[in-house]
Specification:
The protein is mostly helical. It contains 4 helices and 5 strands.
Length: 154
Amino acid sequence: MGNCLSSQTADDQSLLNDSDGVSLPGDPPPPYQDREPVPVYHPTPSQTRLATQLTEEEQVRIAQRLGLIQHLPKGRYDPGSGPPEKKPKECVICMLDFVGGDPLRFLPCMHVYHMECIDTWLMRSFTCPSCMEPVDAALLSSYETSRTDGVTDR
């Protein structure tokens, strides 16, 4: 009787150790840590809330902000183009030097940042971190100008 239990325990142990994480039908779902995290947004610079806790008005405001950010010009850092003395050398948000091929985003005030850094910044505050110029006013005016340039009165 003792031998039967010890061999089953060894088999159970090997099954646990060799598990590849695939669950069978009827098994409980994987732990919550494996799930995608709920995004965190900043309705105002001093507030932080989960996406599931935002009011409808805040959701609309954040969606508008995301849309405006996506309209900002982007590119890749090319250390070989342009005069080196006028070329930005680092992102003032993360303080890391630009490396060839880094994705960049350009603000209307002509300041340049890593795309990930400035996108996160703009979700909190819609001003340039260098000159504190409001990004949305310049962006909205350029958007309105481009929309009315192609319109003619009849």
